[in-house]
């Protein structure tokens, strides 16, 4: 279990230090600073083992969060907790920065006391925490309120308090996906996967029971078998519109037993924003862009690069924030760039040509060509040719995921599913989207 | 770098951007990438860069490289800078090259060219830069290119002083990296004359060079001694203002003086009396100066002065010929012993250590004993205390041994843990070496074990036991003392070991006293038994069985103890075996047998103290060894006087604590292995394990008496074939080892073992064979044989190897027999009988009558006799059925004539074999060998 948690600024000064177990000594703080933050070589591994002590760290802007333990803990659990911790802090005071942490250190200690007990993670639901850890001055709560908080925090549904009321019952559903790709120069997909999240923001009264449905292949096939008359329709659907989900994880509010038996996702949502599920798919991914590189070496001192990008989605949709990054050799001495669309520039500090396009509709193509002059070196090493990488944002889900329904039942209060205003949005972003050249 | 940067404003900006702003690593990398791209575009640009900007960019690249980033361009520009005529540009070029260019670069030719030009330029600054570059790179390639040229510059008459200085140091550097490439030649004699140079800087540089060269070739630089002495005397006698720049805080040229003194340490004291007198004068002056009041309070002044002084003292010690100087040096060091500078005290102690070994100053050193002991007690710095211990050890002799050992023991209680073991060893050695009476020795060592039991190594207590056993006069005292020491409630395990051993041997000497009656002794030991480790318990069990012999009255008590479950059923095999065997021994054997088996240990053979060996090992070959040698020569210590008494008998190497080898009842068990390594040092080295002879090898052996080639041994794994040839007293045997399996033999080591007798009469030389033998393969081993004199036994071939996971060990007799060195001689009947009669002395004849083992075929018998080596003489014997042979056995020392006669009796199926030779043993052996054949 987690033995302690430290927060450092970029200089390695300790901002927050909370030790949960005796096996973590004072010197652990310095060990991490010396061996990771101030290390000569950049430490890439998020897990570092120093003198039989494991340090798990995440970095947010220039703040380091490190969880320390001497035991053999589940590393995934520790990182999940650290991310949760970041979310909680963001929810309380916004951006995680040195100044914000210094201004809120009392709050952070209070939070740390609540969400970790003897190193075991506890309730880290922001909504629930906010009911009893507040940033205002001490507000004497009535006995009722106190007992309500107690029953909620210790009860079965720890993430939602009772008696919430909204005039307008509204919910927002965001499907956020990042698509990762590695493609060979010939256009062969070497690896591709989409990792996605369904984020929900709910403003619903009472204790609503929700049911979420999407075009999961297993569910659709099961329905197709169940009802014979719908077969034709669903076959059509399953053939194209259902997706195969490789694995998924849910927020704690989802009833897993029901998911296991019926594959239906039903839950009582926490109030406010939360991440309903995370998933990953690898099959039938819609690749929004195709990058076609052409690199030609002209003698030892010149390189000609031509890159074509093709957008591969409905012409009515618009992709945004497109950025193509073409790495240049380390002995580049000059670059001339010509592009049809957007702006392109050689960034010497990053050893790359960066080509930016604000918007691009589907089924279009654009091209950039560059002449790179090289300085002859006496080094025999060949240039390793790093892949061309790309960033973008598209308004659809590259995995093909579709939200089929989200039903809300609140038997006690008098509003029905129809009265709830629902918003659904799809955003597909690039993860590591690379093409070899 | 910053000094370089001063002339280069842009670099200053870069440095400040990277350092003073203190940005993160990523930001630094970005900035550097940008800078590199800029420099690349500048270098690429079509218009040629002027020298200034070239210098600027090369300098930036150098800085970036020094920050830890890879630089793979700009070398060409740097090389271009070399041909510039401006100092700053050239300097940056050389700087870049000495830092960044590796030796296998293609540019090296261009660089060498540039350096050559500069060396030939006659411009002193350029020459200096080039020399510095050569020295900084210092690679073999550089040495190859310039090692021939630099000596010329060094000795040329018109070279500037500063260049000479650089050249000398550059040559020194090249000599250090690749001594083989620096040619010795006529320049060497001229280099020596640089010691007379006007310029002191040149002299300093040259002295360093000459010292290094003289260490390798002392003969070539012998003339430097007198020059060095005269130079030294000029410096020493000069007034402090004479040397201007080379006077350092009122000390004239301290570096040069130290270097000259070092140079003189390469040589023995000068033979020329004038030079010698001058040198002595110099050294005296240096010693005198040390007495003068300091001219300055600054620490640099005293440091410089003392540096010269210490170097002078080491020269005095090195020469070791002027008693007067040695004593003065010693007194001077004595003053430093109380100096408040820790470093001085340390150095003084260290130098005194070496002084103590000189016969002239040994007494003088001894006068400081109080101070040194005081240093040991009060010194704060552990390294100084360590030196004090060393010095005490070095200055110890019989007169002060008791005092020093007592002080060291005192100190041991509070000593630093890191040096305890060493002190323990030293105390043990001193106590042994200078013991006037052995009771003191025993007391000291027991004290030692009491105070620092954990640090007392096995060797130390082995040694006590060896000495106690070898000296009759202390045995009683030792028994009494250990008995008293054991009565302490908590005593160290090593003490229990010593106590157990000594009481087991000599407990009877104190048994008369009712306070230490046998039962009390036994109970005392047994009370410690359960607190000890297994090896100690094993030793105590042996003590008990010795008690059974010494004190029959407590036999039953001991038997009860041995019989208890905790012994008889002990989980440790060794303890269990001992308990079982000792119990049986005590019940079965009669008192006589017990007394024989459990007799007192015979004295140990005297040899080099194992403790000393250990101390040497600990310290490495260094001061201690030398000191020991010197001391051994000087004082015949009492170990020497004890020697004649102890060379009485040599205990057999496998003797156990009790001499178990002699006990028939327990002989069947192999010697206990753990006791073997426990006491392996007390006894002599254990014999290397040799497997018993392989079955059937005797048969094969007999077959080889009459033939030279064939298969000697064969089993499922291995076949050994032989092929041998003999001529006169020499022979050669090819042994073929065939691997009959499909897997490899590993660690295949055949060794030929000769018993001690055999070794003196037979010379065998074997070539080592490959330790792995592949499956199905055959390896060959050649044995060269030389027969020195006649011999009886046959050497044994022991083969050890690893097959699969198991270790195989087998031995066979090698058929090298005396008859192999037979040379047949033909002679007539008359000659034969004449000689036969000459050898009529009864000792010379051996006769054997035996029954035939094989069918009696005349032809086969003839073949065998010829195979045996002798000539078969036809028509000599009157009875044609008889066989007669003659030959000469060749050994290195003698030749032995040999006549034989074999008379078969067909009716009785018997043979009568008669052999006459000039040597009885030979007749005997030949008769034995030949009788086996029929």
Automatic annotation (TrEMBL), chain A:
One of the record's GO cellular component terms: AP-2 adaptor complex
UniProt-listed InterPro entries: Adaptor_comp_med_subunit (IPR050431), AP2_Mu_C_sf (IPR036168), AP2_Mu_N (IPR043532), AP_mu_sigma_su (IPR022775), Clathrin_mu (IPR001392), Clathrin_mu_CS (IPR018240), Longin-like_dom_sf (IPR011012), MHD (IPR028565)
GO function terms (MF aspect): disordered domain specific binding; lipid binding; signal sequence binding; transmembrane transporter binding
Keyword Cell division: no
One GO process term, biological-process aspect: vesicle budding from membrane
Topology in the lipid bilayer: Peripheral membrane protein
Record domain MHD: where: 168-436
Places the protein is found: Cell membrane; Membrane, Coated pit
Keywords of this entry: Cell membrane, Coated pit, Endocytosis, Lipid-binding, Membrane, Protein transport, Transport
Superkingdom classification of source: Eukaryota
Keyword Cell membrane (UniProt): yes
Binding positions (a 1,2-diacyl-sn-glycero-3-phospho-(1D-myo-inositol-3,4,5-trisphosphate)): 343, 345, 347, 356, 358
Record-linked PANTHER family: AP COMPLEX SUBUNIT MU (PTHR10529)
UniProt family annotation: Belongs to the adaptor complexes medium subunit family.
Protein name according to UniProt: Adaptor related protein complex 2 subunit mu 1
Source organism of the structure: Aquila chrysaetos chrysaetos
UniProtKB/TrEMBL annotation, chain B:
Gene3D superfamilies: 2.60.40.1230, Leucine-rich Repeat Variant (1.25.10.10), TATA-Binding Protein (3.30.310.10)
Main localisation: membrane
SMART domains, per database record: Alpha_adaptinC2 (SM00809)
Pfam families, sorted: Adaptin_N, Alpha_adaptin_C, Alpha_adaptinC2
Taxonomic source organism: Zosterops lateralis melanops
Subcellular localization, as worded in the UniProt entry: Cell membrane; Membrane, Coated pit
The keyword DNA repair appears for this protein: no
GO biological process: clathrin-dependent endocytosis; intracellular protein transport
Residues the record lists as binding a 1,2-diacyl-sn-glycero-3-phospho-(1D-myo-inositol-3,4,5-trisphosphate): 42, 52, 56-60
Gene Ontology molecular function: any one: clathrin adaptor activity
Matching InterPro entries: Adaptor_Complx_Large_Subunit (IPR050840), AP2_complex_asu (IPR017104), ARM-like (IPR011989), ARM-type_fold (IPR016024), Clathrin/coatomer_adapt-like_N (IPR002553), Clathrin_a-adaptin_app_sub_C (IPR003164), Clathrin_a/b/g-adaptin_app_Ig (IPR008152), Clathrin_app_Ig-like_sf (IPR013041)
Oligomer and partners: Adaptor protein complex 2 (AP-2) is a heterotetramer composed of two large adaptins (alpha-type subunit AP2A1 or AP2A2 and beta-type subunit AP2B1), a medium adaptin (mu-type subunit AP2M1) and a small adaptin (sigma-type subunit AP2S1).
Chain's role: Component of the adaptor protein complex 2 (AP-2). Adaptor protein complexes function in protein transport via transport vesicles in different membrane traffic pathways. Adaptor protein complexes are vesicle coat components and appear to be involved in cargo selection and vesicle formation. AP-2 is involved in clathrin-dependent endocytosis in which cargo proteins are incorporated into vesicles surrounded by clathrin (clathrin-coated vesicles, CCVs) which are destined for fusion with the early endosome.
Gene Ontology annotations for the cellular component aspect, listed alphabetically: AP-2 adaptor complex
Domain of life, source organism: Eukaryota
Protein name: AP-2 complex subunit alpha
Membrane topology, record value: Peripheral membrane protein
């Amino acid at each position: 279990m987690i033995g302690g948690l430290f927060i450092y600024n970029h200089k390695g000064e300790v901002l927050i230090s909370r030790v949960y177990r005796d096996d973590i000594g004072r010197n652990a703080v310095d060990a991490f600073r010396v061996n990771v933050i101030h290390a000569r070589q950049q430490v890439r591994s998020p897990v570092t083992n120093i003198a039989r002590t494991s340090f798990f760290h995440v970095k947010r802007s220039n703040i380091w969060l490190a969880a320390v333990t001497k035991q053999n803990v589940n590393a995934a659990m520790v990182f999940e907790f650290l991310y949760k911790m970041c979310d909680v802090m963001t929810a309380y005071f916004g951006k995680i920065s040195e100044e914000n942490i210094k201004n809120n250190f009392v709050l952070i200690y209070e939070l740390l006391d609540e969400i970790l007990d003897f190193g075991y993670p506890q309730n880290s639901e922001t909504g629930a925490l906010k009911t009893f850890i507040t940033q205002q001055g001490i507000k004497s709560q009535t006995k009722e309120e106190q007992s309500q908080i107690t029953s909620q925090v210790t009860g079965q549904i720890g993430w939602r308090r009772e008696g919430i009321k909204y005039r307008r019952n509204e919910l927002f559903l965001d499907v956020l996906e990042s698509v990762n790709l590695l493609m060979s120069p010939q256009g062969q997909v070497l690896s591709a996967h989409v990792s996605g999240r369904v984020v929900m923001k709910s403003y619903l009264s009472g204790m609503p029971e929700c049911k979420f449905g999407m075009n999961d292949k297993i569910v659709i096939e099961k329905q197709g078998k169940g009802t014979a008359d719908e077969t034709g329709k669903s076959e059509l659907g399953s053939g194209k519109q259902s997706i195969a989900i490789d694995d998924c994880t849910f927020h704690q509010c989802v009833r897993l037993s029901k998911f296991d038996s019926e594959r239906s996702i039903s839950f009582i949502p926490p109030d406010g924003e939360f991440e309903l599920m995370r998933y990953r798919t690898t099959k039938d991914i819609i690749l929004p862009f195709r990058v076609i590189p052409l690199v030609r070496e002209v003698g030892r001192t010149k390189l000609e690069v031509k890159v074509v990008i093709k957008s591969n989605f409905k012409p009515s949709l618009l992709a945004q924030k497109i950025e193509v990054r073409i790495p240049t050799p380390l002995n580049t001495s000059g670059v001339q760039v010509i592009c049809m669309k957007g702006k392109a520039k050689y960034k010497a500090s990053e050893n790359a040509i960066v080509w930016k396009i604000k918007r691009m509709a589907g089924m279009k193509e654009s091209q950039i060509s560059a002449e790179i002059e090289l300085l002859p070196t006496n080094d025999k090493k060949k240039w390793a040719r790093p892949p061309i990488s790309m960033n973008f944002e598209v308004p659809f889900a590259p995995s093909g995921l579709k939200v089929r329904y989200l039903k809300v039942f609140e038997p006690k209060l008098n509003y029905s599913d129809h009265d709830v205003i629902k918003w659904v949005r799809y955003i597909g972003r690039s993860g590591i989207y690379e093409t070899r050249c | 770098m910053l000094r370089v940067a001063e002339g280069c404003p842009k670099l200053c900006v870069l440095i400040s951007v990277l350092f003073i702003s203190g940005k993160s690593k990523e930001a630094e990398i970005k900035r550097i990438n940008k800078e590199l791209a800029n420099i690349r575009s500048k270098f690429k640009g079509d218009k040629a860069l002027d020298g200034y900007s070239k210098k600027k960019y090369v300098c930036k690249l150098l800085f970036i490289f020094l920050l830890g980033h890879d630089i793979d361009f700009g070398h060409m520009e740097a090389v271009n800078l070399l041909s510039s005529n401006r100092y700053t540009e050239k300097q940056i070029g050389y700087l870049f090259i000495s830092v960044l260019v590796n030796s296998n670069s293609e540019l090296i030719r261009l660089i060498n060219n540039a350096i050559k030009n500069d060396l030939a330029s006659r411009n002193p600054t350029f020459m200096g830069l080039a020399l510095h570059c050569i020295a900084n790179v210092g690679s073999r390639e550089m040495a190859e290119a310039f090692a021939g040229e630099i000596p010329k510059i060094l000795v040329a008459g018109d070279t500037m002083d500063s260049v000479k200085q650089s050249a000398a140091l550059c040559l020194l550097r090249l000599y250090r990296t690749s001594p083989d490439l620096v040619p010795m030649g006529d320049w060497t004699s001229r280099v020596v004359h640089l010691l007379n140079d006007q310029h002191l800087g040149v002299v300093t540089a040259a002295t360093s060079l000459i010292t290094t060269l003289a260490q390798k070739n002392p003969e070539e630089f012998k003339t430097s001694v007198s020059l060095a002495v005269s130079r030294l005397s000029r410096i020493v006698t000069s007034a402090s203002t004479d040397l201007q720049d080379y006077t350092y805080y009122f000390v004239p040229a301290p570096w040069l003086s130290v270097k000259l003194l070092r140079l003189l340490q390469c040589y023995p004291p000068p033979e020329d009396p004038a030079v010698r007198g001058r040198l002595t004068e110099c050294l005296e002056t240096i010693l005198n100066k040390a007495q003068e009041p300091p001219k300055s309070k600054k620490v640099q002044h005293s440091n410089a002065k003392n540096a010269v002084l210490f170097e002078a003292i080491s020269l005095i010690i090195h020469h070791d010929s002027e008693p007067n100087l040695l004593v003065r040096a010693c007194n001077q060091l004595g003053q430093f012993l109380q100096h408040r500078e820790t470093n001085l005290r340390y150095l003084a102690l260290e130098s005194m250590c070496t002084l103590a070994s000189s016969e002239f100053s040994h007494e003088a050193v001894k006068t400081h004993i109080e101070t040194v002991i005081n240093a040991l007690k009060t010194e704060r710095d552990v390294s100084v205390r360590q030196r004090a211990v060393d010095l005490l050890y070095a200055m110890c002799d019989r007169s002060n041994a008791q005092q020093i050992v007592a002080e060291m023991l005192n100190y041991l209680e509070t000593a630093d843990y890191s040096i305890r073991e060493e002190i323990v060893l030293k105390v043990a050695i001193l106590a042994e070496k200078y013991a006037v009476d052995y009771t003191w020795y025993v007391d000291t060592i027991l004290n030692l074990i009491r105070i620092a039991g954990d640090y007392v190594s096995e060797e130390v207590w082995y040694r006590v036991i060896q000495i106690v056993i070898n000296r009759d006069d202390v045995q009683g005292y030792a028994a009494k003392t250990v008995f008293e020491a054991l009565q302490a409630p908590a005593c160290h395990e090593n003490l229990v070991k010593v106590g157990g051993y000594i009481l087991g041997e000599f407990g009877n000497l104190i048994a008369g006293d009712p306070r230490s009656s046998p039962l009390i002794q036994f109970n005392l030991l047994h009370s410690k038994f359960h607190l000890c480790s297994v090896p100690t318990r094993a030793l105590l069990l042996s003590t008990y069985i010795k008690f059974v012999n010494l004190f029959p009255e407590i036999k039953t008590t001991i038997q009860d103890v041995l019989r208890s479950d905790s012994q008889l059923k002990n989980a440790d095999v060794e303890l269990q075996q001992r308990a079982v065997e000792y119990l049986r021994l005590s019940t079965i054997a009669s008192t006589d047998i017990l007394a024989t088996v459990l007799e007192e240990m015979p004295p140990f053979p005297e040899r080099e103290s194992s403790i000393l060996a250990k101390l040497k090992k600990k310290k490495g070959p260094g001061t201690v060894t030398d000191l020991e040698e010197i001391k051994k020569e000087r004082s015949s210590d009492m170990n020497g006087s004890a020697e004649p008494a102890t060379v009485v008998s040599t205990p057999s190497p496998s003797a156990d604590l009790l001499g178990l080898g002699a006990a028939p009842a327990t002989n069947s068990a192999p010697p206990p292995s753990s006791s073997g390594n426990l006491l392996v040092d007390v006894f002599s080295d254990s014999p290397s394990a040799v497997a018993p002879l392989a079955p059937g090898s005797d048969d094969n052996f007999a077959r080889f008496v009459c033939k030279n080639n064939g298969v000697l041994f064969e089993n499922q794994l291995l076949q050994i074939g032989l092929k041998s040839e003999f001529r006169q007293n020499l022979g050669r045997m090819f042994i073929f080892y065939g691997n009959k399996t499909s897997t490899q033999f590993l660690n295949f080591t055949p060794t030929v073992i000769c018993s001690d007798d055999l070794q003196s009469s037979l010379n065998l030389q074997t070539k080592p064979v490959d330790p792995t033998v592949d499956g199905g393969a055959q390896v060959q081993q050649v044995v060269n044989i030389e027969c020195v004199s006649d011999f009886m036994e046959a050497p044994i071939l022991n083969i050890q190897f690893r097959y699969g996971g198991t270790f195989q060990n087998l031995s066979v007799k090698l058929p090298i027999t005396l008859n192999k060195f037979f040379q047949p001689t033909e002679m007539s009947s008359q000659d034969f009988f004449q000689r036969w009669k000459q050898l009529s002395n009864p000792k010379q004849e051996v006769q054997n009558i035996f029954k035939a083992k094989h069918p009696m075929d005349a032809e086969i018998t003839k073949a065998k006799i010829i195979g045996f080596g002798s000539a078969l003489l036809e028509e000599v014997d009157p009875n044609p059925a008889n066989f007669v042979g003659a030959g000469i056995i060749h050994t290195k020392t003698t030749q032995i004539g040999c006549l034989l006669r074999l008379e078969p009796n067909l009716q009785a199926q018997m043979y009568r074999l008669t052999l006459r030779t000039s040597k009885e043993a030979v007749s005997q052996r030949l008769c034995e060998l030949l009788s086996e054949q029929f």
